[in-house]
């Protein structure tokens, strides 16, 4: 029954008719809000449909609205499904990346940023609970920031480094426990410690660690010093 629903969603999400796609996204939000047992394969099929739903969105305002709709699903679905849902998202992004033309890459960068934004929103929602912070670190270590996997486009690595703190500062409204903040940095520590990609090391060094040092030296970056 669930598989049949997924197939229906996939067809409607990839429809050439905008109204059909919009209705499918709304229905999907309701469908996911109470599903706790979707398989990895089912989530991949859903994200394949969502990928092409976003592909069909040509106007910038429509793209932005849809990206926020998709990202905000992380705040609506059961907590235990959030990182399974995110893992499926990143797998589809990575597998479809080389098929993107120059005109579409920027809009998918935007979608990536909104998904990352709502990931931080989710972590804040659950009060940076250790279980979910560890799932976040594992997701990025084995997914979009896994520098040992040659199948992951380097452009994705670089972009995440470039926008990490921009998104973090935009998304997080309350103070963050020091241990949780330190955990968030582990994928970047792994990059500068173990990667042989000198461009990636430079990105992680300048965009993450030098930026953090400058902010701390100015007394501007205080989130990680406070307790909830």
Automatic annotation (TrEMBL):
It holds the Pfam family Nop52. Its main location: nucleus. GO terms for cellular component: nucleus; preribosome, small subunit precursor. SUPFAM superfamilies: ARM repeat. The keyword Nucleus applies. The keyword Repressor does not apply. It is found in: Nucleus. Keywords: Nucleus, rRNA processing. GO terms for biological process: rRNA processing. This is Nucleolar. It comes from Piromyces finnis.
